[in-house]
Amino acid sequence: MAQPIDAQMAAALCAAADISADNKLALSELDVKRFAPMASHGDWSVLAEQLTDEQISQLIRIFTLGEMQFASWAAGDKSPVIALVQQLKQRDVYIKVTINLDGTGTSHFATGVPFFEHMLTQIARHGLIDMHIEANGDLEIDAHHTVEDVGIVLGQAFAQALSDKSGIYRYGHAYVPLDEALSRVVVDLSGRPGLFYNVDYTRARIGDFDVDLLREFFQGFVNHAMVSLHLDNLKGLNAHHQAETLFKAFGRALRMAVTPDPRMSGIVPSTKGQCVRLRQGRMDDATVFSKDPVAMAAHWREQGARRLHIVDLDGAFAGEPRNRTLIEQMVAVMGGVPVQVGGGIRSLDVIEAYVAAGVSGVIVGTKAIQEPDFLAAAAKAFPNKIWFGLDARDGLVATEGWDQTSTLKAVDLARQAAQWPVAGVVYTDIERDGMMSGLNIEATHALALASNLPVVASGGVTTLADLEALKQAFAGHETLLFGAITGRAIYEGTLDVAAGQALLDG
């Protein structure tokens, strides 16, 4: 501590650390005054006997505030790039982490694992991240717990420092050579954990360090920082060089990803359980219409909506449902009004769970496009409940939350789907989606005629005139037009739900 803890500073530190007196687990000002000197000397085993895990975490948070320029924090200067501390108490490993993502690369490590500390130094130096890590654990058998848990706590620190990730580049990548070795690292601060580790070390140990522990470090980091991370060692004969290039590239990729992007100021690259509308499927062009989707669903039911269309956008990008509990609550509040759900649905188990929760129609897209047999199996298992989601740019289908555009024609895939008992096709023109520019009626009509399947038109519905034009296009083929999806228009007031339904009914 830069200065002794007195009662006044203890109170200010509690306030700066957002520790409420109403929290029965929280440390009191007297506790802070009493225990901070023990924390400063690293007497964690003694503290562990007197405090709960939560209280230890709070004490470390307070103590680190003093190390990280307490005066500015107490004055309210809470930079989102600084993580005060993360404390993990498990398996007899005690860890303290302090990071500043907007640093100069200074570092201090005390883990008892020299080679690991050498690797951590590469992250700090090449990522320009100020990093202070102390770990006091059982190293008698091996360093497994220490290395893994440092990864976990460092990941937690990154998650805290980045907060909602607004205003940053989010993506980062780097190639780093060292003599004969070359490694590539790509990171996406996505909020969706995923580690893709492709490293074939030429030796099992570097000195007395087990190289398998490096994967455990990265896995712990990924799971708790909630990032997608690809690490590839492309070349290498020396295991030390292989590892060092990975950690250097990791640092440089992080440096790129956390850099502020002036064009993204204030934009959060995720939906996080909110009602949002994207433009052309881009997460960086999202409008939040409500932070309470359940209340919003109830609102549309009260407005007379006869169907509700929901897309789990986080799930679409992650490849698995991310808001299932929330969606089930929305289904319940609709009181029997049919609900159609899509986004990240790539297994029969997920479909079954949604149907059991009362969902009337399940949209499958990416998995069905990549594996037609999956669409066939889903349609046969849940006849007339499966909607084939086809989202296209210039007639070519996009997948992975519209991140990837294929060479497959939407019309051809719709024809193929017609052989199975699907409910129909949800067709979206991505270029028009959320743009308030009107439907691509020609493409929608052509797909319906080619497949002879009912179609739900999506992407660009703005006014009653758009629905009138859609209705006219399907004159003589009315059974092929199941309906139209609208989002931004009803939120922004250019289209009335009841009026739109009445027009298509007439």
TrEMBL record:
It is found in: Cytoplasm. PROSITE patterns: IGP_DEHYDRATASE_1, IGP_DEHYDRATASE_2. CDD domains: HisA, IGPD. It catalyses: 1-(5-phospho-beta-D-ribosyl)-5-[(5-phospho-beta-D-ribosylamino)methylideneamino]imidazole-4-carboxamide = 5-[(5-phospho-1-deoxy-D-ribulos-1-ylimino)methylamino]-1-(5-phospho-beta-D-ribosyl)imidazole-4-carboxamide; D-erythro-1-(imidazol-4-yl)glycerol 3-phosphate = 3-(imidazol-4-yl)-2-oxopropyl phosphate + H2O. Its EC number is 4.2.1.19. Pathway: Amino-acid biosynthesis; L-histidine biosynthesis; L-histidine from 5-phospho-alpha-D-ribose 1-diphosphate: step 6/9; Amino-acid biosynthesis; L-histidine biosynthesis; L-histidine from 5-phospho-alpha-D-ribose 1-diphosphate: step 4/9. Pfam families: His_biosynth, IGPD. GO terms for biological process: L-histidine biosynthetic process. One of its GO terms (cellular component) is cytoplasm. Keywords: Amino-acid biosynthesis, Cytoplasm, Histidine biosynthesis, Isomerase, Lyase. It comes from the Eukaryota. Gene3D superfamilies: Aldolase class I, Imidazole glycerol phosphate dehydratase, domain 1. It is an enzyme of class 4 (lyase). GO terms for molecular function: 1-(5-phosphoribosyl)-5-[(5-phosphoribosylamino)methylideneamino]imidazole-4-carboxamide isomerase activity; imidazoleglycerol-phosphate dehydratase activity. Belongs to the HisA/HisF family. Belongs to the imidazoleglycerol-phosphate dehydratase family. This is Imidazoleglycerol-phosphate dehydratase. It comes from Symbiodinium pilosum (Dinoflagellate).
